[in-house]
Amino acid sequence: MTRTTGLWLIVGMAGFCLLPWYAVDSGFWSFLWLNNLRAEENAPGAILLLLFDRMWLSPTLGALIVSAAANVMIANSVIRARTLVGTAAAGLLLTALQGLIIVRDGPVLLPGLLSSVAGTEGQTGFGAGAAVSVLALLFVLTTSISALGKGRGDAFVIGLIGLIVTLVGVFVFFPVAHILVRAFELSDGSYALSGFLPRFLASDIWGLGCLIGRGYCGPAVNSVFLAVMTGAGTTLLGLAFALIFTRTQFKAKPLLRILTVLPIITPPFVIGLALILLFGRTGVATEIFANLFGVEKTRWLYGFGGIYLAQLLSFTPIAFLVLIGVVEGVSPSMEEASQTLDADRWQTFRYVSLPLMRPGLANAFLLGFIESLADFGNPLVLGGNFNVLSTEIYFAIVGAVADPAKAAILAIALLTLTLGAFLIQRRWVGTGSYATVTGKADSGRHAALNRTVRFACYATALPWAAFTAIVYSMIVFGSFVKLWGYDHSFTLDHYLRAFAIDFSRGIRWSGVAWDSYFTTLTIASIAAPLTALVGLSTAYLLVRQKFAGKNIFEFSTMLSFAIPGTVIGVSYVMAFNFPPIELTGTSIILIIVFVFRNMPVGVRGGIAAMSQLDRSLDEASITLGANSFTTVRRVIAPLLGPALMAALTYSFVRAITSVSAVIFLVSAKHNMATSFIVGRVENGEFGLAIAYSAVLIVTMLTAILLLQLAIGKRRLRRADRVEQIA
Amino acid sequence: MSNSIPGSVRFDGVVKKFGAVTALKKLSLAIEPGQLVTLLGPSGCGKTTTLRLIAGLETASEGSIFIGGEDVTRLSATYRKVSMVFQSYALFPHMTVLENVAYGLTVKSVPKKEAQERAEEGLSLVGLSDFGGRIPSELSGGQQQRVAVARAIVLEPEVLLLDEPLSNLDAKLRRHVREEIRQIQQTLGLTAVYVTHDQEEAMAVSDRIIVMRNAEIAQEGSPHDLYERPNSSFIADFIGDANLIDCEVLSLNGSATRIEVVSKCIELPIQPGQTGAAKMVLRPHQIRLSRDKSQGEFEGNITYAAYLGNQIHYSLDGELGQLFAISDATLDPLSVGENVSINFDPQKLRLVAN
Fold first, then answer.
1. What's the rounded mean pLDDT across residues B149-165?
2. What is the ipTM of this complex?
3. Closest residue of chain A to B77, computed from CA coordinates
4. What is the mean pLDDT of residues A412-417?
5. Among partner residues B92, B151, B155, which is closest to A617 by beta-carbon distance?
6. Which of helix, strand or coil describes residue B125?
7. CATH 1.10.3720.10 intervals, chain A
8. What CATH architecture does domain B241-353 belong to?
9. Would you say A204 and A398 are in contact if contact means Cβ atoms under 8 Å apart?
10. What's residue B116's pLDDT?
11. DSSP letter string, A31-72
12. What is d(CA B22, CA B35) in angstroms, rounded to the nearest whole number?
């Protein structure tokens, strides 16, 4: 008998017999279901099986019972493990199948056959009982696989792999697969291959009318054009900043550093709002130009120009961040070698440094390309008649004529583009890198730029930095002005309307923003630790463990990074609005979407941090008799402190600023700050929207500063300890 | 066979593949309890893989591994009664020295007080009783090394594994620490498996040496066996330096072996092997050089001389090809360009297959 297997079987049995099988309306944690366990909607699987004739739940129970019998009765450990792998896998498969086949209206497949067994009644989504039973079967499966000697016979590691694969499968691949299926749906509700290709390639997506001077281009063409321009623009600006930062004696470098933090704490549409205050029809700059030069006030901002400007402002810092690493990665000794071979500064830059940076530049371009395609906030605010894929998908779902099939097809077009760029980045740029950073200490100084290049950099970057500063200051000013463009007197009205507190009868949060503000903070604080946990566990598996299919595993976990938020949002709406997993309208779906959207960030941070920990530390712990779980708890986790904190804040902040996926998933009960602000923008309440954005930025800055403080303290403590003993 | 005695290790046709690369080709070996056995070989020969297979840090692709007679092929590292001293020591930087040594005991739920007492005993065994409260980064390399040994032996493992334990120490400290390790191993009667690529280190500490090459065992035996009776030119060259000189075996009979080297016949004591082409093993210190041409059978010309204080290293070119010779005659050095006669005692020569 295997003890771990036995324990999981007991847990599974308890879940099946005691917890409500279906999701309960009142919420699991209210425990109201305890009052009436025999009601159909609250009943555990066992009661459903006995009293309500739900025969299709029997495979789950059967798998648990047969596994328990096998675990007790088979003495040979190899045969026992093989049997358990079979029973648990069969139980999981049949449980998933019954959930997928028998939906709310009854069976969707083989109705004749299934009705005779199961009747025609349908069922609602999985609840706590189903989740616990499935998890127990999953861990029985993984424990038994490890007992067969796979993965060095480590039950914890195999269990973790199984858990993460299942989670990514259910919450990334399953919803995306739903989009694919919906794209094949015809107008009469049936599915066929014939409808897809003509509609996918239709001219209202890929139309090139604007190029030949007739009408509009399709949103896909617009998106690609915008993305190429944004990728090129941000890469150039980012390179100018990076060169100034690393290769000149520029005095105000710390100010440039601030630039790298901005995109992290700025909700995506805020730049668009600030631009409206500057260049909109009543904007400051528009007024000045009109008064001085008699330039006509136009709506040029609402269209390609405005979106492009907003995206350049939003994504240049990201390119800067990437390119600092690239420029610093060029080993100084190569530049010194070039100079000792009598090349001057220009020749060194042109023939040595720049070619070495080329893969990094391509990488920055592709990142800008992907970010631009996925951007939702700026086109939503500034779009005008310039249609791009991400907003078209949104309007296909929430517009006057809801057309989910069209949304699915647009989503596939967008997904094809971002995945294509992602694949190119991984295959081509990823392998062709000339990274010259090695473990060897590389002293020496980077070659300074020659005059021409230096002034070109200054001339590009400094005006842009000034512009960025103006744009951000608009956010502050705009929130204190009564009515932008008409009445510029100082006021606190917007803040009061949003965040007033009424003390007349106890504390009453009377501001209109409090509700969504608290929801946002709560959900972000629940999602952040989960994201860090999933991300760092994945990083642990990727860095420290060897197992079959590891490459595919890594690829699929990074994949959700390349799936635009809008696509995730649409796919979640399509996949989780129905049984077997019915989550729309709950706060759980918001938490889940954040965890799996932001997971790649945690994975990357974890990989970077864990690669610096000597692998023999884990191995020492293991050979000293600790199991993997103890090793993670007592050796790896304590040494990963800073990475853990970074992952925590980053996912917290990203959960607050995210809008594209969230806007599909919020409900009246669980509204998020960003979608609340977008709503105000759509109503023309710019003052309130800007004031709320400013509060969000301050909130996130506080969170980041608190993190820095916490990490700083940690270091101090260690130094103290060293001093005491010495 | 000493299969069921605690501390024995046995490999039965073990194969280890990493993807397409074969790290071990059907390896079979047996290690007797209480011995210190060294796995020696150039980098990439599979010696570290063998050690990690014993530890359970790798799983065999084929074959079986037994420790103390028990089949542990599928047993995870956590449950094997072996412990390991790592090349980098792998001391946990966030724990004190005492916590490090007690770690293996505490994860096995030994009561806290007992764990602390046993850890202190372990520390005193390596002479670091007063250092328990420090953190590893405050210790010197040699001290860290001894903490790593203490941490491994307090668990009273059936087999102690050491992965190049001296490679991060400077040359002078190495001799001292290897003596210490050998002493502790013999005092406690531990079975130990020691991996190194340094043949001198291997000769100094081992009861037995297993020389590996290209994922296989090249030869195994006591240090004396390997030096005196190499079975291949690889071993002859790897264990102590050797000049390998082409020769032809003319005849083998009951009492003597006759070989021909550069058209001269030499008679050696009886050797295993067969007639035909072979290589003669001539150790550098067996070569006697003399200005007197009548003294030797072969001639050569000094191309390089290095004075090392207690001896002089010479490179020669001549009838036997390029030779490396060591001379103790430091008071009368030969100079570069001099023609000398080369002489050696045929009784001490060995032949290896070509």
1. 92
2. 0.82
3. A623
4. 89
5. B92
6. helix
7. 205-438+445-491, 519-674
8. Beta Barrel (2.40)
9. no
10. 93
11. -GGGGGTTSTTT-BHHHHHHHS--GGGHHHHHHHHHHHHHHH
12. 28
